[in-house]
Amino acid sequence: MNMATYIPPNEQDPNDLAWMREALNMAEEALANDEVPVGCVFVKDGKAIARARNRTNEWRNATLHAELEAIDHLLTTNPAPLDTITLYVTVEPCVMCASALRQIGIGRVVYGCGNDRFGGCGSVINVNSSSRLDTHPAYIAEGGYYREEAIILLRRFYLSQNPNAPKPKAKASRVLKTDIAPVPTSSNNTPQSSRPPSTTPSKGDGSLPRNIPMTSNPSAAPVESTAISIPTPEVRTSDDNATFEIGSLNSEKTVTDSTSNLPIGSTLASTPVPGPLA
């Protein structure tokens, strides 16, 4: 049974959606750099204290998932436990990253789409809440925030030609599709953390993240069905996952945010305006 917890769109907090847009910005940057498009933002007291994207191809290092890349910079100024910090990440953390987050005592994780192959927050195993770990208490892990956008980003990546594959496969003839399977059924039994969640962002100077397609409808009713298989963020060495036939997002929103390219670990990150773009 899939034990991942998904929050229905009509119950998602606009503040969480605002920060997830920031994570999607980082995922877009990863895609532009031929990386598996996963991005994340760590938030404390309404401010982004670290943000990162996958860099596994760039450094030929399978451990450089977005979460671990950010943690390397984060811990220098924020020693564990990070119980007042929330992580926003576009894809459910894999087992490796979910374990790392448990070891640093993260307070809460909010993610976009699930990871049916290597998910560590309930899709495969529940590292975030397992009683077999004796490092730090269980942390809340909730998915479904801009899930469709996160899935489409992954599909766009796997549609592209893979220069790192031993035998690249031709993909030019593939038909683009945008259909998304419903949210996986869930036992919804992720235990609540014994610690309070991070402070969500408040309205700031009016700046907004850039170039994020807004196709999710926060007022839509929740859906139930079987799970969709989502590739994990890892080094791109073959075309084994290239069977996805996908479509591009149709975005008419482009908002400039001059602070969105701050270095990883910057404490001068912008505070997004809560809620979806009008």
Can you walk through the features of this model?
With 278 residues, the protein is an alpha/beta fold. The chain has a domain at 14-158: Cytidine Deaminase, domain 2 (3-Layer(aba) Sandwich), CATH 3.40.140.10. Helices cover 19% and strands 10% of the residues. It contains five helices and five strands, in the order H-E-E-H-H-E-H-E-E-H. A hairpin with a 2-residue loop joins strand 1 and strand 2. It is globular. 46% of the residues are buried. This is tRNA(adenine(34)) deaminase. It is an enzyme of class 3 (hydrolase).
Care to give the gist of this entry?
The protein is an alpha/beta fold. 19% of the residues lie in helices and 10% in strands.
